[in-house]
Amino acid sequence: MKKQIKDMDLKELGGLICDALIAKDIHVVLSGGSCVEIYSRGEYTSWDLDLINQYNEQFKKIHAVMKELGFKEHNKYFVHDDTKFFIEFPSGPLGVGDAPVENIAEIDTEAGVLRLLTPTDCIKDRLAAYYHWDDEQSLQQAIWVAQQNEYDLQSIKEWSIKEGSEAKYTIFENSLKHRDK
To answer: From what superkingdom does this record's organism come (predicted)?
Structure first.
């Protein structure tokens, strides 16, 4: 018997939605706080799933699939009576700062395959908020993800320089060294 929405965690719900959309050739990728929650092993908690509409599919197609799954549109989110999570579909293109995302991670769940940013791109996503909006909480989230996962520090450094944020990158890198001691 297939798991019910009311019994699904964040990853399973995301996997269910990703599979339902991919069946209609609609590609979405989880980003934002939900990725941080997954990669930080719960250091951060998010109740919304930001599923980036990777190829800017027509929103009415997404709306139809979400309705089939029992979700209703409320403001800019989709909600379901059987879950506390709410779903948003920010438009693409999929990117971190000014750079496109090239690799998509996948997590197999009982409910479907969740497509999400890699740990490296999740860190970049959080650092973009820190770099461009001075969001200290996003810096902390990037550190949590880095502490719990393998990632490409050189790629993050090169990306940070292209974003014009070498000084803030140094703060991130020093925070990692400080916490490793």
So the answer is: Bacteria
